[in-house]
Design a protein that fits this description.
4 domains; five-stranded mixed β-sheet; four-stranded parallel β-sheet
Length: 656
C-alpha cells in the first residue's frame, strides 16, 4: 500500500543509522526505572554504600546479571513480535545471560560480562525467527489445535534458542566486550576520552542522542559500574552543560524569537532534562556545534581528571537526575564537569553569535528542520488527496492514538467522527481512540500528534499515518474526509461542506445517574498564570469532589510532559496517564475559565477542562466538548457566561 512520504524514507545511511539507534534505544528506555532501582540499591546497601546491609545487598548481582538483561530482551522481542516475541526473546536470552555471567564460562570473578549487548541482540533476533517460523504454518493448522501448536512451537524453539545462544553467541559477545572494554580503558588511561565529544555532540543534534546514550553507552557503562561502582560513560551524552551554554549565549547575544525563548528553553533543558530543546538553536547556526563539542570535551576532561562517574543512567538528562545517580565520591567532579562544559560552551557560542549575522526568523525554520530529522511530521497531503490511488486501502477503520487514550485522542476522534458523519459516511467508517500501548495493526488509518509519530507507527505498519499538531481543528481532518469521499464516489463529485453545528441543548434531567460536570467543578475566573498552575487548579477541583486521589494530579503533569494537551480554539484538556487510572475513583470533569490567557506552550488558553475517566463514561462529554469548541457561537457563549448554571446549560447534563 502507499502511505505518506516521511523524512524517515529519505536520507540513506543516516536514516538507517537513526532507525537502528532508535530501536536500540527503545529496548533500554522502557527499563530505565529498573536501572535506577538497581543503582539506588547499590548506592545504599553494598558494603561501600551509604547504609550497608548484607541481606539487601544480595539483590544487586541478580538484578544486574539477570533481571536487567531479561527486561531488555523482552522489550526488544516485543518490539518485533508483540508479547509472543517478548517471551521467546527473554527465554532465548537466558542462554547468553548465563553464558556471559557464569564462572563456568568466564572465570571466577564474573566481571566484564557482556550480557546487556547479548540481550539486545538475542531478544529481537529470537523474536524475529519465531515470527518467521509462525509464518510457515499460518493458516494451515486445523481448528482446535491452534493453541497447542502455538504453545509447543514457542516452547521448543525458545529452548533450542537458549541453548544456541549459550554456546554460539557467548564467545562472540565476550570477544566484542573485551575489545570495547580495552578501547574505553585505553581512552581513559591516556586521558583522551574527551575526544569522543567530536562524534557525540554532532550526533546528538542529528537526533541520535537517545540512541547513543541508551543504545550504546548505557550497556557499556553498566558493565563498568558493576566492576567499579560507577562509570564516566553515563555522563558522556547526559551532561546538560554544552546545551545550557549555547542557550545562555542566545539569551545574551541572540536576536528576535531565539533570544526571547532561550531563557525558558534553558530552564527546561537543565532542570527538565529535555536536551532536544536546544537542537534547533544549533541548527539555526550550525557553527555552534563547535561550542557543543568544546563544552562536551571540557566536561569529560574534568570528569576524567576527578575520576567522576554515575552509578546508573541519568534519564532524562536533567541536573537533578544526574545528581541523583552520582556515585558517593563523585559529586565535586560531576558538578565541576557540568559547570565547566556550560562555561566553555557559552564562551564559544557567545563569540560566534556576537560576530556573525543573525536572522530573527531562523528559529522556526530550524525547528522544522529538526522535526524532519526526527521524522515526526508526516507529509500526508499527497496521499490523502490522491483518493484514487489503487494502493491506498479503503478507509473503513480509523484510530486516534495518544499516550493515555482517554483525553486528546478521544477529543480528536469525536471531531473527525462528526465530520465524517456530516459528510454522509458515518455508517461506513468507524473512528475510535486508543492508547499507543494498546494499538494493533488492524486499522486502515491512524491519526496521532506529531510528537508521537515514531511510537504510534511501529505497532501499525499497515495503516496510513497522519500526524496533527492540533486535535481540535487540524486541516488534515478535511483531507481524510475527502479521501473517504473520493474512494467511494470518485473525484468527479465534491462533498458538501459540513454545516457549523448548533450549540446542543441540555437533555432531559437524569435522576439515577451522577453528572460528570457539576457547579462545584466549575470556576469562572481562574487564578493560574502558568500551565503548571492551571493543571494544579483543574486537578485539585477533581480531588475536592472526591473523583480522584491526589496522585492523579501528578499524573496530569506527567502526561503534559509527554505531549501538550492543548486542543486548539483556546482549549486545553489536561488528564492523567494511562497508568494512573487506578487513582480515579469515579469519572468527572472540571471546568475553568480564564480572563487572561494562560500560556500553554506558546498557545493562549482561555478554557481548561480537567478530565478523569474511570470507565469510558467521560467519552460522552468529550464528544460534547468537541462540538462546543468547534462552534464559534458556543465558545463565545462560554466566554460571556455570567453564572455556573449558564455553563452547565451550554454543556448539557452529561451523566455517568
Amino acid at each position: 500500500m502507499t502511505t505518506a512520504t516521511t523524512p524517515h524514507q529519505k536520507g540513506g545511511i543516516r536514516v538507517a543509522v537513526q532507525k537502528l539507534g532508535t530501536f536500540l534505544s527503545s529496548m533500554i528506555m522502557p527499563n530505565i526505572g529498573a536501572f535506577i532501582a538497581w543503582g539506588i540499591i547499590t548506592a545504599f546497601f553494598i558494603p561501600k554504600g551509604w547504609t550497608p546491609n548484607e541481606k539487601i545487598a544480595t539483590l544487586v548481582e541478580p538484578m544486574v546479571y539477570y533481571l536487567l538483561p531479561i527486561l531488555i530482551a523482552y522489550s526488544g522481542g516485543r518490539l518485533i513480535y508483540e508479547i509472543r516475541g517478548g517471551v521467546v526473546g527473554a527465554i532465548a536470552t537466558m542462554g547468553v545471560v548465563l553464558g556471559t555471567s557464569s564462572p563456568v564460562f568466564i572465570g571466577e570473578d564474573g566481571n566484564g560480562s557482556p550480557m546487556f549487548l547479548g540481550a539486545m541482540i538475542c531478544g529481537p533476533l529470537a523474536a524475529w525467527c519465531m515470527k518467521k517460523l509462525d509464518g510457515l504454518w499460518a493458516g494451515k493448522i486445523k481448528p482446535g489445535f491452534e493453541m497447542l501448536v502455538d504453545n509447543f512451537s514457542a516452547g521448543i524453539f525458545a529452548a533450542l534458542a537458549a541453548i544456541a545462544s549459550m554456546f554460539w553467541l557467548t564467545p562472540v559477545m565476550t570477544a566484542f566486550m573485551r575489545i570495547a572494554g580495552s578501547a574505553v580503558e585505553f581512552l581513559i588511561n591516556n586521558n583522551v576520552l574527551f575526544l569522543t565529544s567530536i562524534l557525540i555532540e554532532p550526533a546528538k543534534v542529528l537526533f541520535l542522542n537517545n540512541a547513543i546514550n541508551h543504545g550504546v553507552l548505557t550497556p557499556l557503562a553498566t558493565e563498568q559500574s558493576v566492576e567499579t561502582g560507577k562509570s564516566i560513560l553515563f555522563l558522556l551524552e547526559a551532561n546538560p552543560g554544552p546545551g545550557l551554554g549555547i542557550l545562555l549565549a542566545y539569551t545574551f547575544f541572540g536576536r528576535g524569537t531565539a533570544r526571547a525563548t532561550a531563557p525558558g528553553a534553558a530552564i527546561i533543558h537543565f532542570f527538565g532534562g529535555i536536551h532536544e530543546i536546544y537542537f534547533p538553536y544549533v541548527l539555526m547556526k550550525p557553527t555552534l556545534i563547535l561550542a557543543a563539542i568544546g563544552g562536551g570535551m571540557t566536561g569529560i576532561l574534568i570528569e576524567t581528571i576527578t575520576s567522576a562517574g554515575l552509578r546508573s543512567p541519568a534519564a532524562p538528562g536533567s541536573i537533578l537526575a544526574i545528581l541523583g545517580s552520582t556515585a558517593n565520591d563523585s559529586y565535586v567532579g560531576v558538578i565541576l564537569g557540568v559547570l565547566g562544559a556550560a562555561t566553555v560552551s557559552c564562551v564559544i557560542a557567545s563569540a560566534i553569535l556576537r560576530f556573525s549575522k543573525q536572522s530573527e526568523d531562523d528559529l522556526a525554520e530550524a525547528t522544522a528542520k529538526m522535526e524532519g530529522m526526527k521524522g515526526k511530521k508526516s507529509s500526508v497531503g499527497a496521499t490523502l488527496t490522491a483518493g484514487t490511488d489503487t494502493d491506498t486501502p479503503l478507509i473503513s477503520k480509523i484510530v486516534f492514538a495518544c499516550d493515555a487514550g482517554m483525553g486528546s485522542s478521544a477529543m480528536g476522534a469525536s471531531v473527525l467522527r462528526n465530520k465524517i458523519k456530516d459528510a454522509g459516511y458515518g455508517n461506513e467508517v468507524s473512528v475510535v481512540n486508543s492508547a499507543i500501548n494498546n494499538l494493533t495493526d488492524s486499522f486502515d488509518l491512524l491519526v496521532c500528534h506529531e510528537d508521537l509519530y515514531d511510537r504510534a507507527k511501529a505497532p501499525t505498519p499497515s495503516a496510513v499515518h497522519v500526524t496533527v499538531d492540533n486535535f481540535m481543528n487540524s486541516p488534515r481532518y478535511d483531507d481524510i474526509v475527502e479521501l473517504i469521499r473520493s474512494q467511494r464516489e470518485g473525484d468527479s463529485q465534491s462533498a458538501a461542506p459540513a454545516p457549523e453545528p448548533e450549540p446542543e441543548k441540555a437533555p432531559a434531567e437524569t435522576v439515577d445517574k451522577k453528572p460528570l460536570l457539576v457547579a462545584d467543578n466549575i470556576v469562572l475566573a481562574g487564578t493560574a498564570k502558568t500551565r503548571y498552575a492551571a493543571i494544579n487548579e483543574a486537578g485539585e477541583l477533581l480531588v475536592k469532589v472526591g473523583a480522584v486521589d491526589k496522585a492523579y494530579v501528578d499524573a496530569m503533569h506527567e502526561r503534559e510532559q509527554s505531549v501538550s494537551t492543548f486542543m486548539g480554539n483556546g482549549l486545553a484538556i489536561p488528564h492523567g496517564t494511562n497508568e494512573s487510572k487506578d487513582t480515579i475513583k469515579e469519572s468527572a470533569i472540571s471546568f475553568i475559565r480564564y480572563e487572561e490567557p494562560v500560556d500553554w506552550g506558546g498557545q493562549p488558553t482561555y478554557f481548561v477542562v480537567g478530565i478523569a475517566g474511570a470507565d469510558g463514561s467521560h467519552l460522552k462529554v468529550l464528544s460534547k466538548i468537541a462540538k462546543i469548541f468547534g462552534n464559534t457561537k458556543s465558545v463565545e457563549q462560554l466566554k460571556n457566561a455570567a453564572t455556573k448554571e449558564e455553563i452547565l446549560e451550554i454543556f448539557g447534563k452529561v451523566t455517568q
